[in-house]
Amino acid sequence: MTEDTTAVAIHGFPAGGVRGPVESVDPYSQALEAYGGDPVAYARHHREAVLEEPVVLSVRNLTKSFKGLKAVDAVSFDLHQGEVISIIGPNGSGKSTTINLISGFLNPDSGLIDVRDQSIAGLSASDVAERGVARTFQNGRVFGSLTVDENIALGYHGKLVEQRPFKQLQRYPLLRWVNLLSESALALVHGPKTRRERESVADRVTIEVDRFKERLGTRRNDFTYTLSYANRRRTEIARAHISEPLLLLLDEPTAGMNQSETAEVLEQLQYLKAQGHTILLVEHKIELVTALSDRVIAMDGGHIIAQGDPDDVRRAPQVVEAYLGKRRELHVTRTRGQADVLTKQNAIEREDGAAQAAPALASEQLARESLLRLDRVNVHYGQVHALQDVSLDVPQGAIVSLLGGNASGKSTTMKTILGLTRTTSGVIDYDGRDITAEPTRERVIGGIAAVPEARRVFPQMTVQENLLSGAYTRHDRAAVEQDLERMYARFPRLAERRGQQAGTMSGGEQQMLAFARALMSRPKLICMDEPTMGLSPRLVEDVLGQIAALRDELGISVLMVEQQAELALSIADYGYVLQNGRIRLHGPASELLHNPQVQEAYLGGAH
């Protein structure tokens, strides 16, 4: 290893970024070799060594609210030079908001953000980038009409000197045109210094492409809109890294990638880690997080709930609870004799306080009484294979829970059932007919209703206007009026507020309204997306009771997408667990409730 290829090694691993050609020998492999090929020993040493290095990023009491909701609440941590920290947590926990605050895409309400002891809190994204912070984005952002090389070269634009002689004027609106004119002139007429700088940038682009040589090496002059999703993400990582940042922020860099693609990106990130790069990572794939990270920060509700060694954090009870939910013993009174057609009773207290479950429904009976069936359904978003051969059944008069971690394909499955997302292949059978090609309106008329994530009531409309919007496909006015009164009888709180604007009601009241609005279409099946999100524990109990009542009193089938597994399984009859767009596990809810493989699907590594 020579001085012009990497910085001098400290504590047994190289520090700093690449300053010359990429090494012919992988520094990660070299580091492993020093520890007898044992990745655990290397990771332990690296974790201890980086804590002796200077702090690159210091965050103190960082807070951000959106319309009164605290998305990030008093978050504090330090990131040392050469350290890799990952932030994990369920949907809405504040992970991406934290990244956006650090990178200048959002301004904090309060708190400190220092990079190398210089405050960057409240600075614009461009000013933060000038101070050595580079990032990628959650949904992947490349310029489709530019080539791979041109996209990567843009990452170095802020560090150009000869081609941007008046770049310091860029921050002054009245003088910005001077810099723009000078850049345009030098792009047309190249002086000797400009040519040398352009050649230097081209060399740097080559270094970045070589990191993904097998994937991008032959695509350098292709427009990025022609690339696969995974290759666009690789291009974005290369663009962020070309400026040799002090701090690299990666927001879900492997989102939408399959297992082999994820493994390849992990290898590249381990390469950067072995070179001493400082990385803050937001990622949902826990196995990648564990393999790469020195430390892990777990967030929920805007707070840090655990931090430390990756294995310790993912096994921490509060982290498992954040992902799976807290087990609850619900007491829901049944009004229909359904014990023979349900896969599980709600938890019943025995004298000794333990929960007792009813026998599971036989799989043959489950299939015979199916109301909705998906058979080997595939869905693509461009190049992303979002659902892969997904098959599931929702029986008549049963609650089926669709479980899985972030970005597992749950919401895509629901959108596909509702006709909002089209299938690439496969069949959707509902009530004995093929509805794969039917538009959403026809599915609603046929008896499929939805309670969307975050309730999605019409805030400027009254409660009654919201309820009537749920019956927009119906023409039987007298029956609609009767159903309206039934909704007020079922949800007395809505009757009290029938003239109130929906946006002024509490979260629990809005959830009641969303339920009642769905019932106004007289559905046979209701698809619910995260019905307990953002509700207090007491309201969660009320909402779960209402969902059980839809099945027990009205005989309505429910497909419930829920991130908190134990909450969903506490009232469900059957469950499916999605991971990376595939059904990984399914069975009676009473069995899944105690199955450690459910935790593994969320957090990995369960024993």
TrEMBL record:
One of its GO terms (biological process) is L-amino acid transport. InterPro entries: AAA+_ATPase, ABC_transporter-like_ATP-bd, ABC_transporter-like_CS, BCA_ABC_TP_C, BCAA_Transport_ATP-bd_LivF, P-loop_NTPase. The keyword Aminoacyl-tRNA synthetase does not apply. It holds the Pfam family ABC_tran. Residues 57-326, 372-605 form the ABC transporter domain. One of its GO terms (molecular function) is ATP hydrolysis activity. Keywords: Amino-acid transport, ATP-binding, Nucleotide-binding, Transport. Belongs to the ABC transporter superfamily. This is ATPase. It comes from Bifidobacterium pseudolongum PV8-2.
